[in-house]
Specification:
The protein contains 2 helices and no strands. The chain has a domain of 30 residues. It is an all-alpha fold and 78 residues long. Helices cover 73% and strands 0% of the residues.
Amino acid sequence: MKRIMLSLIILSFGMASNGFAAASATRTGAGLLVWLFVGFIALFVVSQLIPGVILSAGLIKGLFSKKETPATHNDHRA
């Protein structure tokens, strides 16, 4: 039984190396249309990021600026 298990382990390692070699040999890179599509989507992301940064900067500036209190007149004239 041990001999059969050892033989199966050796065979499985031998077959796995062929499988890994075949998977990397048929791999191709992305084409021009894929990169154009990714660039187009990135353009949308960046165009939405710029107004968001400006809005966040204005919000932080408003939170940390000094508050002006309106002048109150406490005239006690009757």
